[in-house]
Amino acid sequence: MTQEFRLKDEGLIDRSKKISFKFNGKKYFGYEGDTLASALIANGVHLVGRSFKYHRPRGFYGVGVDDPYALVQLIRNNETIPNIKATEQELFEGLEAKSVNCWPNVNFDIGGINNFLRIFLPAGFYYKTFMWPKSFWYRIYEPFIRKAAGFGVVTHEHDKERYEHKYEYCDLLVTGSGPSGLASAYSAAKNGAKVILAEDKPRFGGSLLTSEVTIGNQTGKEWADKIVTELKEMPNVVVKNRAQVFGYYDHNMLVMSERISEHMPKTEKFMPKQKLWYIRAKEVVISSGSIERPIVFGNNDTPGILLSSAAKEYMKVYGVLVGKKPLIFTNNDSAYETAIEFKKNGINPIVLDSRKELNSDLITEAKNLGIDIKFEHVVVNANGYRKVKSADIAKISEDKTNLGKIENIACDCICVSGFWTPTIHLASQSGGKTKFNEDIDAFIPSQSKQNETTVGSANGIFNLNDTLKNSFEAGYELSKKITSKENKLSVPAVVEKKNSKHDKFWCVPLPKGKKYKRFLDFQNDVAVSDIELALREGYRSIEHVKRYTTLGMATDQGKTSNLNGLQLVSNIENKVVPEVGHTTFRPPYTPVSIGAIVGREVGKHSKPTRKSPMHSWHEKNNAVFVDAGLWLRPRYYKKGNETLFDASKREAENVRKNVGVCDVTTLGKIDVKGPDAAEFLNRVYTNAWLKLPVGKARYGVMLREDGIVMDDGTTTRVSENHYHMTTTTAQAANVLSHLEYYLQIVWPELNVNVVSTTEQWAGAAIAGPKSRDLLQKLFPETDCSNEGLPFMGFIETKLFGVYARIFRISFSGELAYEVNVESDNGNFMWEKIIELGEEFKIQPYGTEALSTLRIEMGHVAGSELDGRTTPFDSSLEGLLSKKKDFIGKRSLQKEAFISPDREKLVGVVPLDKKTSIPEGSYIVRDANAKLPNPKLGHVSASCWSVEYNNPFSLAIIKDGKNMIGQKLFALSPLKKKSIPVEIVSSHYVDPKGERVRS
Amino acid sequence: MLFIKCPYCGIRSQNEFAYGGDATVKRPELNKEISDKEWDDFVYNRKSPRGKHLEFWHHISGCRQWFKVHRDTATHEIFKTLKPHEEL
User: Fold this and answer.
1) Which CATH entry fits the domain spanning A163-290+422-495: 3.40.50.10770, 3.30.300.130, 3.50.50.60, 3.90.1150.10?
2) What ipTM, to 2 d.p.?
3) Over the stretch A713-735, which tens digit does the pLDDT of each residue have?
4) Which of A449, A703, A745, A893 should be substituted to probe chain B, the one whose Cβ sees the most B Cβ atoms within 10 Å?
């Protein structure tokens, strides 16, 4: 297929490399260096999609990030990606793309009927229409709207692409490689600064790629190429293309997304698709350039109508003609460059200029080339549905209110130029103020908040000479501040054409009796009439007008529409634009893939995994693991076809009957050292610590200042000034921060140091009636008798030559010991325990059996100490010292905490002794009471009591201690269960605690 | 993301730190009789100023020291950082 609109040799594309691609199922060809947009235009394709609300045909309006229309669905590596701009997507062999927001296809779209129903779809249509009847919203309206709306579809598949993150620091970040960006970067780099230069397009140079200027003795493009080449070779400079700086955050942190491989077919498995750069810059130069503004006229969204600068870039960069019968509609000089470019390529354009006849370098040149120029003329309306066919034009009065006789002229494209809007997004995101510049009818940055400087056309400077001068100066001054060097470059001489003043004209009036739709926002179908309606209905604040009409919303964020919208609002309100103000600029400047934000922190990489030294033994012995914070802990060790229930029951029974061993490495461990350690513990824990002798452990509870239990655990006095504290697995990090807070801020006079030793020790709990026999085998030299190592006793000894600590503490309620060795010896210890335990029928047990054992003993854990319970609630009041003060003690006097109504810990047994009570069930008096059924409390933990062979649960219920013996109900609407239960003591097994002391 | 100068380690990114609340609150002395109001002021009642705020931060992924930050809550400007017992 021939590319009918491709020029013979103009452009920067490589005509020797032909690329085939598919659009809407049809095969086309383009060249290397094309975008999907330029290749489609070369093939005469201008219809790419349908608009958001009215499903009007959509073509191309811009040439890059400015384009509000050309969104497509891209298929790459069998993945479907929505919200891809055809003007940004580079062509690669085998590329496949589809139109969006149309059904059954882009040429015949059923939704196009909205275009004819549009009088029923005014601004605020959804808010007005779908409010009634209320029940319809959820079932009918919302699903329908969701189906009808949207620019493409997201996949339900996992994103298989790789995205990377990078943190970078630099002296100067330059955002954009147009003349101002190149000059600033070059001048700063030559003065020794560490510079990052970011360009969102594949090619560097910005406007220099398309403008007819001379810098020094080179063309603009040659100069840009030379500077970029030189910058790339400098060791203190990072130069990136396809890199969009999209957000300016606090403390000069900017975020940039770099497209690494989206512009090519995937070849390497681990090639990232995008890289997200977090850049902390000492100084930022915003050289983001400017975007041409549309002029508003009837049906100005018809495909074939586009920005004049885009038409020029399609010719000069891509060698593509947007049309062969062009009409150029302008209020300023820059569109003449487009006209001249058409003329050079053998096409005769007609220029309509809203201004009175005048002369300038460009206008004179156009006249000399014989270009047909109609001054004081405007386009009133465009004709054509899927592509513009002709334009209604007219002479316009000087005050721009009256139109002359309307004349129809044929055209196949209309190139519009309503002057330029500086891209101030980043400057505004930084927190800096903006001001309205009357000379250019647009906002420019005024007062900086962070270390940023805006240069070039982003700062409203539209001539190259001043741009280069200012940018060289900015680069030098900023770098001097940082490097203290004074290597100043001279600014090259510039030859450029002088522009005459633009016309303050942006909207063509409607001819009498005509009601053409004149669009302001092309992506969201917001027309002049919608804004007028919103204002009639009383919306005043520009932020409200935006949200009511959707002006400037959606993925293009109003890059082409905002200023014309503001002009309209201020005209109607008889205000000036700065009084109306602009809406807030927020990041991101362009859409960012969610995957890029997430980066490599997906799946297993989303958080670190902590494993105990015995992990591989557990794996080899069929452990089924469970996440405990970051830790992986064995939940149970599966034998044959056992279920979780069978296995944990077997393991728990074996602890009660023989002996079991459990990996308790994950418990938090903190070394507390110093002469004031005892005093410190005495303040941190609720019970007394001053008299704990060396070689003894004690159970302690710590509170938050608000009186709620924070954590519990045992702490052992290893030597005079050295304590070994244990915390729960979940609270380990919080407890350490808590202790550090009190030591560093509240009581700095205490001479105490704390440090986490969690990972230094491997721990094994040996529990069961035969545990002492086993311990004696493990430590034949040590006196393990009840007298030698009594309950809560501690000794340091050797396990077959390896340093070991034995703590006689118990969580299971059985006679039990905890053995700690240095982590590296963990596996040795474990294997010895298993080996020597064989004769005592030892079995390893997991967290599920551990829970069973503690629940039936009535020992509280995380599900009871849930951040809402006081020591009274969790049956820990016996540990509250009356003699001394401690953290949180004063809160316990609070009326609410001593109310008898508070929920307290009890045990629960089903009356049938068979039905397990789901955790989270509510305890109620009457199972059939009217909803909401008054709740007495909830079931916090459930198990199958191996001691009594029936289900047992812990619950926290109102006035718990006085409820013992009562027959109530446990309700679980979620599991559809209603279970008659009896309230019993939480100490279900061995209430006197004889076993641990035996 | 903020850039915070730890008085012990120097300037680091915010993700190394944890926020620690109002640094002007003083814990009542131990064993001292105080009213419910005084206690509530210590435990619960905090001002939420728009503007300058003296607050604690904890360098959890660094030196693990607590320190004070004088920050503007509206602009995030950090005026000064101090060791816990230094005054503004």
Assistant:
1) 3.50.50.60
2) 0.98
3) 999 999 999 999 999 999 999 99
4) A745
